[in-house]
Amino acid sequence: MIERRTLSRKVFLYANYIFLTLFSITCLFPIIHMAALSFSSNAAVSAGWVTIWPVDFNLDSYKYIFSNNIFMSTVLVSFQRVILGVSLSLTLTVLAAYPLSKSNLKFRSRTIYSWFFVITMIFNGGLIPTFMVVKETGLMDTIWALVIPSAVNVFNIVLMLNFFRTQPPELEESAQMDGAGSLRTLWSIYLPISKPSLATIALFSIIFHWNSWFDGMIYMNSPSNYPLQTYLRTVIVSRDLTNMNASDLSLLANISNRTVMAAQLFVSMLPVLCIYPFLQKYFVKGIVLGSVKG
Protein backbone atom coordinates (compact mmCIF):
# COMPACT_ATOMS: atom_id res chain seq x y z
CA MET A 1 0.00 0.00 0.00
CA ILE A 2 1.45 3.34 -1.08
CA GLU A 3 1.07 6.00 1.54
CA ARG A 4 -0.43 9.23 0.27
CA ARG A 5 1.69 12.25 1.22
CA THR A 6 -1.00 14.87 1.37
CA LEU A 7 -0.35 18.32 2.82
CA SER A 8 -2.08 17.47 6.09
CA ARG A 9 -0.07 14.26 6.35
CA LYS A 10 3.20 16.12 5.84
CA VAL A 11 2.23 18.72 8.44
CA PHE A 12 1.38 15.96 10.89
CA LEU A 13 4.71 14.18 10.30
CA TYR A 14 6.79 17.36 10.63
CA ALA A 15 4.91 18.32 13.79
CA ASN A 16 5.61 14.85 15.18
CA TYR A 17 9.31 15.13 14.33
CA ILE A 18 9.57 18.54 15.97
CA PHE A 19 7.70 17.40 19.07
CA LEU A 20 9.76 14.23 19.48
CA THR A 21 13.01 16.14 18.91
CA LEU A 22 12.12 18.73 21.55
CA PHE A 23 10.98 15.98 23.92
CA SER A 24 14.27 14.10 23.43
CA ILE A 25 16.25 17.28 24.10
CA THR A 26 14.34 17.94 27.33
CA CYS A 27 15.09 14.36 28.45
CA LEU A 28 18.77 14.44 27.48
CA PHE A 29 19.60 17.96 28.66
CA PRO A 30 19.59 17.19 32.43
CA ILE A 31 21.88 14.19 31.88
CA ILE A 32 24.31 16.14 29.68
CA HIS A 33 24.25 19.10 32.09
CA MET A 34 24.96 16.82 35.03
CA ALA A 35 27.88 15.20 33.19
CA ALA A 36 29.25 18.65 32.33
CA LEU A 37 29.01 19.73 35.98
CA SER A 38 30.85 16.63 37.14
CA PHE A 39 33.77 17.30 34.75
CA SER A 40 34.02 21.03 35.54
CA SER A 41 35.98 22.92 38.18
CA ASN A 42 34.44 24.24 41.35
CA ALA A 43 35.00 27.86 40.28
CA ALA A 44 33.24 27.40 36.93
CA VAL A 45 30.27 25.67 38.56
CA SER A 46 29.98 28.30 41.28
CA ALA A 47 30.09 31.06 38.64
CA GLY A 48 27.28 29.40 36.65
CA TRP A 49 29.34 29.05 33.47
CA VAL A 50 28.56 25.36 32.89
CA THR A 51 25.70 24.40 30.57
CA ILE A 52 26.32 21.38 28.32
CA TRP A 53 30.11 21.56 28.00
CA PRO A 54 32.61 21.11 30.86
CA VAL A 55 34.53 24.24 31.85
CA ASP A 56 38.10 23.81 33.17
CA PHE A 57 37.90 20.06 32.53
CA ASN A 58 39.09 17.90 35.42
CA LEU A 59 38.41 14.50 36.97
CA ASP A 60 38.84 15.48 40.62
CA SER A 61 35.20 14.75 41.52
CA TYR A 62 35.50 11.24 40.15
CA LYS A 63 38.82 10.73 41.96
CA TYR A 64 37.08 11.73 45.17
CA ILE A 65 33.96 9.54 44.81
CA PHE A 66 35.96 6.48 43.73
CA SER A 67 38.20 6.93 46.78
CA ASN A 68 35.11 7.22 49.00
CA ASN A 69 34.77 3.83 50.70
CA ILE A 70 31.07 4.27 51.55
CA PHE A 71 30.18 5.19 47.97
CA MET A 72 32.05 2.20 46.57
CA SER A 73 30.44 -0.03 49.19
CA THR A 74 26.96 1.13 48.14
CA VAL A 75 27.82 0.52 44.48
CA LEU A 76 28.79 -3.07 45.32
CA VAL A 77 25.57 -3.52 47.32
CA SER A 78 23.53 -2.28 44.36
CA PHE A 79 25.29 -4.64 41.92
CA GLN A 80 24.80 -7.50 44.37
CA ARG A 81 21.14 -6.57 44.72
CA VAL A 82 20.59 -6.43 40.96
CA ILE A 83 22.28 -9.80 40.32
CA LEU A 84 20.46 -11.61 43.15
CA GLY A 85 17.16 -9.83 42.61
CA VAL A 86 16.97 -10.39 38.85
CA SER A 87 18.05 -14.04 39.13
CA LEU A 88 15.53 -14.77 41.87
CA SER A 89 12.74 -12.84 40.16
CA LEU A 90 13.24 -14.59 36.80
CA THR A 91 13.39 -18.02 38.43
CA LEU A 92 10.23 -17.56 40.51
CA THR A 93 8.36 -15.87 37.66
CA VAL A 94 9.04 -18.74 35.25
CA LEU A 95 8.27 -21.41 37.86
CA ALA A 96 4.95 -19.71 38.72
CA ALA A 97 3.90 -18.83 35.17
CA TYR A 98 4.59 -22.20 33.54
CA PRO A 99 2.09 -24.30 35.55
CA LEU A 100 -0.47 -21.48 35.54
CA SER A 101 -0.36 -21.46 31.73
CA LYS A 102 -1.72 -25.00 31.64
CA SER A 103 -5.40 -25.85 31.41
CA ASN A 104 -7.51 -26.89 34.39
CA LEU A 105 -7.41 -30.47 33.13
CA LYS A 106 -3.61 -30.62 33.59
CA PHE A 107 -3.41 -28.41 36.69
CA ARG A 108 -6.61 -28.73 38.70
CA SER A 109 -5.65 -26.17 41.37
CA ARG A 110 -4.81 -23.60 38.75
CA THR A 111 -7.89 -21.43 39.46
CA ILE A 112 -7.16 -21.27 43.19
CA TYR A 113 -3.56 -20.17 42.61
CA SER A 114 -4.64 -17.70 39.93
CA TRP A 115 -7.08 -16.02 42.32
CA PHE A 116 -4.40 -15.97 45.00
CA PHE A 117 -2.11 -13.98 42.71
CA VAL A 118 -4.92 -11.69 41.52
CA ILE A 119 -5.89 -10.83 45.12
CA THR A 120 -2.30 -9.82 45.89
CA MET A 121 -2.42 -7.41 42.95
CA ILE A 122 -5.44 -5.62 44.48
CA PHE A 123 -4.67 -5.88 48.19
CA ASN A 124 -1.33 -5.88 49.98
CA GLY A 125 -0.24 -5.98 53.58
CA GLY A 126 1.03 -2.42 53.66
CA LEU A 127 4.27 -0.94 54.92
CA ILE A 128 4.09 -1.83 58.63
CA PRO A 129 3.10 -5.52 58.22
CA THR A 130 5.77 -5.94 55.55
CA PHE A 131 8.36 -4.33 57.81
CA MET A 132 7.32 -6.61 60.71
CA VAL A 133 7.63 -9.70 58.52
CA VAL A 134 11.12 -8.69 57.37
CA LYS A 135 12.15 -7.92 60.95
CA GLU A 136 10.75 -11.12 62.51
CA THR A 137 12.31 -13.31 59.82
CA GLY A 138 15.75 -11.90 60.61
CA LEU A 139 16.31 -10.26 57.24
CA MET A 140 16.99 -6.79 58.63
CA ASP A 141 20.30 -5.24 57.56
CA THR A 142 20.96 -8.02 55.04
CA ILE A 143 20.88 -8.00 51.26
CA TRP A 144 17.95 -10.44 51.35
CA ALA A 145 15.71 -7.74 52.86
CA LEU A 146 16.08 -5.88 49.55
CA VAL A 147 15.60 -8.92 47.33
CA ILE A 148 13.05 -11.33 48.81
CA PRO A 149 10.05 -8.99 49.47
CA SER A 150 10.03 -7.91 45.82
CA ALA A 151 11.00 -11.26 44.30
CA VAL A 152 7.54 -12.08 42.90
CA ASN A 153 5.83 -9.51 40.70
CA VAL A 154 2.37 -10.60 39.55
CA PHE A 155 2.49 -8.38 36.47
CA ASN A 156 5.62 -10.22 35.30
CA ILE A 157 3.94 -13.57 35.98
CA VAL A 158 0.95 -12.57 33.85
CA LEU A 159 3.31 -11.42 31.10
CA MET A 160 5.20 -14.72 31.13
CA LEU A 161 2.01 -16.78 31.51
CA ASN A 162 0.45 -15.23 28.40
CA PHE A 163 3.66 -15.84 26.45
CA PHE A 164 3.62 -19.54 27.36
CA ARG A 165 -0.03 -19.76 26.30
CA THR A 166 0.79 -18.46 22.83
CA GLN A 167 3.08 -21.42 22.17
CA PRO A 168 1.59 -24.40 20.26
CA PRO A 169 0.75 -27.36 22.53
CA GLU A 170 2.44 -29.68 20.01
CA LEU A 171 5.80 -28.49 21.38
CA GLU A 172 5.07 -29.95 24.79
CA GLU A 173 3.38 -33.07 23.40
CA SER A 174 6.37 -33.91 21.21
CA ALA A 175 8.76 -33.43 24.14
CA GLN A 176 6.64 -35.65 26.38
CA MET A 177 6.50 -38.31 23.67
CA ASP A 178 10.31 -38.33 23.76
CA GLY A 179 10.17 -38.94 27.53
CA ALA A 180 10.76 -35.41 28.82
CA GLY A 181 9.14 -34.42 32.11
CA SER A 182 7.70 -31.02 32.97
CA LEU A 183 10.98 -29.47 34.16
CA ARG A 184 12.90 -30.89 31.19
CA THR A 185 10.26 -29.51 28.81
CA LEU A 186 10.39 -26.11 30.49
CA TRP A 187 14.19 -25.97 30.46
CA SER A 188 14.86 -27.40 26.98
CA ILE A 189 11.81 -26.30 24.99
CA TYR A 190 10.14 -23.24 26.47
CA LEU A 191 13.03 -21.24 27.95
CA PRO A 192 15.12 -21.10 24.74
CA ILE A 193 12.19 -19.57 22.84
CA SER A 194 11.30 -17.18 25.68
CA LYS A 195 14.24 -14.77 25.25
CA PRO A 196 12.07 -11.70 24.41
CA SER A 197 9.84 -12.13 27.47
CA LEU A 198 12.75 -13.04 29.76
CA ALA A 199 14.75 -10.03 28.53
CA THR A 200 11.76 -7.74 29.09
CA ILE A 201 11.20 -9.00 32.63
CA ALA A 202 14.94 -8.80 33.32
CA LEU A 203 14.94 -5.17 32.15
CA PHE A 204 11.99 -4.35 34.42
CA SER A 205 13.73 -6.02 37.37
CA ILE A 206 17.10 -4.36 36.72
CA ILE A 207 15.56 -0.89 36.60
CA PHE A 208 13.44 -1.58 39.68
CA HIS A 209 16.31 -2.88 41.81
CA TRP A 210 18.79 -0.26 40.61
CA ASN A 211 16.46 2.69 41.24
CA SER A 212 14.87 1.56 44.53
CA TRP A 213 15.89 3.58 47.56
CA PHE A 214 13.02 3.48 50.09
CA ASP A 215 13.42 -0.16 51.15
CA GLY A 216 17.14 0.40 51.74
CA MET A 217 16.27 3.24 54.09
CA ILE A 218 13.84 1.26 56.24
CA TYR A 219 15.52 -2.15 56.19
CA MET A 220 19.19 -1.15 56.49
CA ASN A 221 20.69 0.16 59.72
CA SER A 222 24.27 0.73 58.57
CA PRO A 223 25.04 3.28 55.78
CA SER A 224 27.65 0.87 54.40
CA ASN A 225 24.80 -1.57 53.65
CA TYR A 226 22.74 1.02 51.79
CA PRO A 227 22.15 0.45 48.08
CA LEU A 228 23.49 3.24 45.90
CA GLN A 229 20.20 5.08 45.40
CA THR A 230 19.50 5.17 49.14
CA TYR A 231 22.98 6.59 49.73
CA LEU A 232 22.49 9.20 47.00
CA ARG A 233 19.12 10.18 48.39
CA THR A 234 20.68 10.59 51.83
CA VAL A 235 23.55 12.79 50.67
CA ILE A 236 21.30 14.88 48.40
CA VAL A 237 18.77 15.55 51.16
CA SER A 238 21.28 16.04 53.95
CA ARG A 239 23.94 17.53 51.63
CA ASP A 240 26.58 15.95 53.82
CA LEU A 241 29.42 15.66 51.35
CA THR A 242 32.13 17.25 53.40
CA ASN A 243 33.35 14.20 55.29
CA MET A 244 36.79 14.51 53.82
CA ASN A 245 39.94 13.29 55.49
CA ALA A 246 43.43 14.74 55.24
CA SER A 247 44.14 13.01 51.94
CA ASP A 248 41.16 14.73 50.35
CA LEU A 249 42.29 18.25 51.17
CA SER A 250 44.28 18.59 47.96
CA LEU A 251 41.08 18.10 45.99
CA LEU A 252 39.15 20.85 47.75
CA ALA A 253 40.30 23.48 45.27
CA ASN A 254 38.56 21.83 42.31
CA ILE A 255 35.54 20.04 43.76
CA SER A 256 32.40 21.12 45.58
CA ASN A 257 29.16 19.57 46.75
CA ARG A 258 27.58 20.18 43.35
CA THR A 259 30.39 18.61 41.32
CA VAL A 260 30.64 15.58 43.61
CA MET A 261 26.86 15.14 43.63
CA ALA A 262 26.72 15.41 39.82
CA ALA A 263 29.51 12.85 39.49
CA GLN A 264 27.75 10.43 41.83
CA LEU A 265 24.43 10.80 40.03
CA PHE A 266 26.08 10.37 36.63
CA VAL A 267 27.94 7.24 37.76
CA SER A 268 24.71 5.79 39.18
CA MET A 269 23.01 6.13 35.77
CA LEU A 270 25.76 4.50 33.73
CA PRO A 271 24.92 0.81 34.33
CA VAL A 272 21.30 1.19 33.19
CA LEU A 273 22.36 3.35 30.22
CA CYS A 274 24.84 0.62 29.20
CA ILE A 275 22.43 -2.30 29.63
CA TYR A 276 19.31 -0.76 28.10
CA PRO A 277 20.46 -0.71 24.42
CA PHE A 278 21.20 -4.46 24.54
CA LEU A 279 17.81 -5.39 26.04
CA GLN A 280 15.73 -2.75 24.24
CA LYS A 281 15.56 -4.84 21.04
CA TYR A 282 13.60 -7.49 22.96
CA PHE A 283 11.40 -5.01 24.77
CA VAL A 284 8.58 -4.38 22.25
CA LYS A 285 8.51 -8.02 21.10
CA GLY A 286 8.41 -9.29 24.68
CA ILE A 287 5.60 -6.95 25.69
CA VAL A 288 3.51 -7.76 22.60
CA LEU A 289 3.96 -11.54 22.84
CA GLY A 290 3.26 -11.53 26.56
CA SER A 291 0.13 -9.43 26.26
CA VAL A 292 -1.59 -11.55 23.58
CA LYS A 293 -3.96 -14.09 25.01
CA GLY A 294 -3.83 -17.56 23.52
Number of strands: 0
Structural class: mainly alpha
The main sheet comes to:
none
CA radius of gyration is: 25 Å
**What form results from the Cα inertia axes?**
globular
Percent of residues in helices: 55-70%
SSE ordering: HHHHHHHHHHHHHH
Low-pLDDT ranges: none
Note the gap between the termini: 30 Å
Q: What do you see in this structure?
A:
With 294 residues, this protein is mainly alpha-helical. The chain has helices at 7-38, 42-47, 60-66, 69-100, 110-122, 127-136, 144-147, 154-165, 169-177, 182-190, 195-211, 214-219, 228-238, 257-291. Helix 1 packs across helix 14 (257-291) and helix 13 packs across helix 14. The radius of gyration is 25 Å and the shape is globular.
Summarize the structure.
With 294 residues, this protein is mainly α. Helices cover 69% and strands 0% of the residues.
Key features of this structure:
single chain; about 290 residues; mainly alpha; about 70% helix; globular
